[in-house]
Amino acid sequence: MLPKKVKQIIEIEILNQVKKKNDLDLKQKMIEQGLYSVEEINKIFSDYDFKDEINECFKLINLEGRDPFYEFYSQISFPPMGKGEELFTLDQILENYQSQNWLNLFPERVALKEKYPHAGERYLQITSIEGGGSYFYDKETDYVYDVDWGREEDMITGKLKPWFTSFYDFLEWYYSDEDA
Question: What percent of the chain has pLDDT over 70?
């Protein structure tokens, strides 16, 4: 079960999707701009079910039916901004998982990858590392870590304590109105 605030965000996204599908003015503007054909516009506004694609993503990252990580990412396409770093989309998480970007980004990470060959399969990077750190989700424990650049080995070895002991608690904080 997701936090109440997250459920409200998901309800708003669903309402926006319904409005978009029924927005004749938007369809007309798109036709007038000539950027899309009528067939493409109809496809954009169709009731296309992304559930198969979402389930395939979860299968590829070995996280089928996991709550609340699964519940959150199976219902929200573009996570709205909360506190801290902007959360990756499920597609971005999958891309980083498949490339193990956080382990391959710089040559000094090669030794880390060789020393801990399964780290890239266990930890999902859920935000960019551009700000000097990143949030990581541990698939085995449901923990969320706030990892500064260069402290990835501390996370892998358990020297770095989890920031949140569940993804639910992380979401509750991330979307709360209260200060950290």
Answer: 77
State which CATH number among 1.10.8, 3.40.50, 3.40.1580, 3.30.1180 fits the domain covering 49-180. 3.40.1580
CA 134 vs CA 88, 129, 148: distances in Å: 11, 5, 7
Rounded CA separation 123/135 (Å): 10
> Which residues on neighbouring strands pair with residue 134, listed in sequence order?
147
**pLDDT tens readout for residues 66-86:** 678 888 888 777 788 888 789
C-alpha–C-alpha distance, residues 33 and 29, integer Å? 6
| Pairwise CA distance, residues 100 & 124, whole Å | 9
Structural domain boundaries in the chain: 1-46, 49-180
Query: How far apart are alpha carbons 113 and 109 in whole angstroms?
Result: 6
Sign of CA dihedral 77, 64, 109, 152: positive
Report pLDDT digits (tens) over 90-122.
889 998 888 877 776 666 666 777 788 788 889
Q: Is the Cα torsion angle 139, 144, 146, 151 positive or negative in sign?
A: negative
